[in-house]
Design goal:
There is one protein chain. The protein is of the alpha+beta class. 18% of the residues lie in helices and 34% in strands.
């Protein structure tokens, strides 16, 4: 049984890595993604205290359509955690990571209900570069894969 959990965790890490890699390659013609460009420190949200050492999470996608991934705390494996999603220094939303995901349950991440998803607001569709950061709520700890930088075309009036 321990071997199966280890394999499931490895599969989840590989899946997360592939998802991260695919989102940077899977570009729509009208969307420019520049995930490899590090934002200037002044463009990031202010730092807070560190998250628990048992907290783990990933930003699997952040683009013109959505910011999504998962977050959990292994010390309370079935309890949802909250994440803060920023555009630069501006807090877009605080979400409870409680969406059910079979891949997380299969990987031994508690009950698997640790997903989050936010529709990116139309205000981001302005032709300017935006940097999305996802953090464990109330901390300065980014989820793995954050920040992500992209530019969305201007929305049609």
């Amino acid at each position: 049984m321990k071997h199966n959990k280890t394999c499931a965790r490895a599969a989840l890490l590989i899946l997360s890595a592939l998802t991260l890699g695919l989102t940077s390659c899977d570009k729509a013609e009208d969307q420019k993604t520049t995930s490899n460009v590090a934002p200037a420190p002044a463009d990031l949200p202010p730092a807070g205290p560190a998250a628990s050492k048992t907290s783990e999470g990933y930003v699997e996608v952040a683009d013109c359509g959505q910011a999504a991934g998962w977050a959990w705390d292994s010390s309370t494996p079935d309890a949802p955690v909250k994440v803060d999603i920023f555009d630069g220094k501006k807090l877009l939303s605080t979400l409870t990571a409680d969406l059910e995901r079979k891949d997380l349950a299969d990987a031994g991440k508690g009950n698997g209900a640790h997903g989050y998803q936010l529709a990116i607001p139309e205000s981001v569709h302005d032709g300017k570069q935006h940097t999305i950061t996802v953090r464990f709520s109330g901390t300065g700890t980014d989820l793995i894969g954050a920040p992500k930088t992209f530019t969305c075309p201007k929305a049609n009036p």
